[in-house]
Amino acid sequence: WVQEEAPDVLCLQETKCAVSAVPPEIRALPGLPHQFWSSAKDRPGYSGVGLLAKTEPLNVTYGIGDPEHDVDGRVVTAEFPSLFVVSAYVPNAGRGLVRLEPRQRFDAAFLAFLQRLDARKPVLLCGDLNVAHAEIDLCHPRANRASPGFTPQEREGFSRLLAAGFVDSFRHLYPEARGAFTFWTYLGGARARNVGWRLDYAVLSQRLLGALCDCKIRSTVAGSDHCPITALLAV
C-alpha cells in the first residue's frame, strides 16, 4: 500500500519497535530512503514513532525537550525547506484515567514545543493524538464522556492547540462529515459496524491553509486497529 501511495513523507506511530529491530522490508521501502526512528528507553514494545522521507530533511530532532516524556519516544520532527513535519504519538490517559494528569502535562509541553517550531516556519503535525475532539468525532459520545480520549480535559487540550493558531485539516475541509473515524477496537466487530473514533489527525499552521489540497481518511486500508490518513499539500 505504501509503495502504491508513494508518499513524500510517511509518519508512523505506536511502532513498539527499537531502532535496531525495524524490519528489513521497511528499511528497504523504495522511495523512502531517509528514515528516522524513536523508541521508548528501556521499555521494549512500548510507544515509538517513525518518520520516513523521500528527500533528506534539513534537520531532524527527537522529543519535545521535556525529560518526563522524551524517554517514551513519542515525537520525531523533520525540518524541510518550507515546513516542519512532526510525527507524534500522544500518551493515552489509560484505563480508569490513571494517566490523565501526565497526559495533560504532555499536552501543555507539546503545545509549547509546536509554538516554538511555528515561530520559525509552518508546521504539519501528523499522528495519533489520542483524542476525539468533538461529539461528531466518535460513534457513541454520550457513553464515553469519562473514557480516555474523550474527557473534558483532553478535549480542552486539543481546543487550546486550535486556539493557538493550528488547524484540524480534516474538520476544516469537512466540518459536517459524520462516521469519519480512524480507530476501531478489535472487539465486537466494531470496524465492520463503523463503531469508531477519530483519533488521528493532520494539524497544520494556519498559514499553511492556502497550501492544503485535501485530507483523506483511508478507512478501507487494513492492517491495524487504526487506518492511515493522507494530507495533501502543495508546498
From TrEMBL:
Superkingdom assignment: Eukaryota
Known catalytic reactions: Exonucleolytic cleavage in the 3'- to 5'-direction to yield nucleoside 5'-phosphates
Cofactor: Mg(2+); Mn(2+)
Name of the encoding gene: Apex1
Residues under site feature: Important for catalytic activity: 200
Textual note on the cofactor: Probably binds two magnesium or manganese ions per subunit.
The family this protein is said to belong to: Belongs to the DNA repair enzymes AP/ExoA family.
Active site feature: 89, 128 (proton donor/acceptor), 226 (proton acceptor)
Source lineage: Eukaryota, Metazoa, Chordata, Craniata, Vertebrata
Protein name per its UniProtKB record: DNA repair nuclease/redox regulator APEX1
Site (Transition state stabilizer): 130
Residues the record marks as site: Interaction with DNA substrate: 226
GO biological process assignments: base-excision repair
Annotated ranges, domain Endonuclease/exonuclease/phosphatase: 1-226
Gene Ontology annotations for the cellular component aspect, listed alphabetically: mitochondrion; nucleus
Organism name: Tichodroma muraria
Keywords, comma-separated and alphabetical: Cytoplasm, DNA damage, DNA repair, DNA-binding, Endonuclease, Hydrolase, Lyase, Magnesium, Manganese, Metal-binding, Mitochondrion, Nuclease, Nucleus
